[in-house]
Amino acid sequence: MRSPRILIALLFGATACLGSSEPPGRSSMERLDPPVLSPPPPAPPEQEAEIVPVESPDALRPGQGDRLASTAMRTFVHAEPRRRSMRLGYLRAGTVVERAAAPAGTDGCSKGWYAIHPRGYVCIGRTASLDVDLDVVHATPHGPLRGEAYPYRYVVSRNPPPHLYVRLPTPAEQRKVEGYGGRHEKSSWELRNEQLLGVPDPPTEYLASGRDLPKPYGAEEKLRYASHRGRARHNSAFGLISTFDWTGRRFGLTTELDLIPIDRTRAVIPSQVRGVEVKTEGTPAFVMHHGVRTLKPDAAGELRPEGWAEHRSGWVLTGRSAVSGVYVETDTGLWLPASGLRIAQLGRDLWAYASRGLKWIDVSIDRQILVAYEGTRPVFSALVSTGRGGLADPETTSATVQGTFFVQSKHVSATMDGDEASENARDLRDVPYVQYFHKGYALHGVYWHDDFGKVKSNGCVNMSPADAAWLFAWTEPVVPPAWHGTIHEKGGTLVYVHP
C-alpha cells in the first residue's frame, strides 16, 4: 500500500505502499528560558573523548570479547568511521553486538567510532553505548525470530484501542486506567486469542521488578501518565516480542517497549499460504479452485483419483500432459486438471542477468505470481497481491509500478500506515520482511489479509509471511543476523514488474 508521506528519504526513498516509517522521535515540550539582560558566558567547547593510541591492530577489530548496545529504534552502521560516510544498515534497540576494543576515529562523533561485527562502524552517543548493562537491553528479552514466517506474534487493536502501560500494572492501576474489574471468566474470543499466541513467557526479571520500561531513542512518546502512555492509535496493529500472564490477564510487550492488555486486541490468524521451491526442471503453478482432485496412473497407465489438491497450493509441472492437455503432470508424480491451475509464465533474459547466473525476481500483475530465478532457472514461486489499480497509472491510482528495479533496502520489520485521509487508515507496526525496490514500493509480508493471488494492496507487492521470509533470506543485500536492516544505494537483487 502507498502513502504520500515521505520520511527518512535516504533509508526508504519514499514511504511505502502503506507509507513506511519508523516512529518519529519521542515528543517533548521545550523549556523556554527567561530573557536575560546581558549575554550569557560562552559555552565551553565540546571536549572530544581522549583517544588512547593503539599499538595492536587487533584492538581496531571486533572479536576480542568487547560489545556495544543499540539504544535507539535505529542505530546506523556506517561504511567508514566518519559521519558523512555511507550507511550500510542499522541495529534495533536492545541489540548487543561485538565491537572493537578501541575507536577508529572521532570524525563527527566525539565518543568514537567502533568497528562492529561483521562490518561497519557505529558512533557511540545517543543511539549506542559501550555499556551493555542498560535498562533497554534488560527490558528486551530477545529480538525478532529471523527466518520464521512471523518474526513476532501479531495482534490488531479492538475498539477502543488498548492502553500502553509503562510497566506490568497492579490491579489498582488497571481499575484506575481502564475500569478493569479484575478476574472474570474468559470469553471464547479471549481463549482463542491465547491459543493463537501460544504459551505465555514468564515475566522477565526486569518486568517482575516493577520498574518502568525505558523508551528507545526515536520511539514515539506523546503522552506520559503515572502508569501508562495513553492509548494506541485507532486501528493499530502490533508485533509482540513476548506475552505474559499477569494478575489473571495476558499482556504483550511491543517492539517499542510498551505493554498492552491482550484482551483489548485480536490475535492474527497465521496464513497457511506457501509458495513452492522449484527443485527440478519445470514450471510453477498454483491451484486456484477448491475441490481439485489429484490423480495418479495405475498399473495400466490410466489416471485414477488419488486425493485432493489444497486451494492455493504450489506445484511444479514437468511439461507432460494427457487427454489432449486436460491433465498435466507434476514433479511429484501426481496429475492435476489444467483448468484448476494458474500457471506461471517463465520470464525472459532482458538484462543478461540470466546468462551471468545472477539472481532476479519476476512479478506478473496479470497472473499475481512472483518467480525468483538464479540465472535462467526458477528456484521459487509464490502467489502475491499487487496494487488494486491493476495495470493503471500508479501516479493516479493504487496500481503497482511497472519496470525494472533493484532491491534498495531490506528491513526485518518496518512500521507502515494507510492513507491518513481514509476512514480505514491503519497503523501497521512491525510489517515483516520489507524489501524496497522503488521509492515507496516494496515486497513485504502481510498479516492483515490472506487474499494472496488477488489484487489487494495500495501499491506494494504483498506476500504471505512465509513466502516473504524465504525471499528475504534469498535476496541481496544480506541482512547480518544481529542487524535489523541493510541499505544498498546502488541496488541489490533485480526486480522486474510487468503485466
UniProtKB/TrEMBL annotation:
Residues 359-498 form the L,D-TPase catalytic domain. The keyword Transferase applies. PANTHER family: L,D-TRANSPEPTIDASE, L,D-TRANSPEPTIDASE YCIB-RELATED. Pathway: Cell wall biogenesis; peptidoglycan biosynthesis. It comes from Chondromyces crocatus. This is L,D-TPase catalytic domain-containing protein. One of its GO terms (biological process) is regulation of cell shape. Belongs to the YkuD family. Residues 36-45 have a biased composition (Pro residues). InterPro entries: LD-transpeptidase (IPR050979), LD_TPept_cat_dom (IPR005490), Transpep_catalytic_dom (IPR038063). The active site is at H444 (proton donor/acceptor), C460 (nucleophile). CDD domains: YkuD_like. Residues 19-48 are annotated as: Disordered.
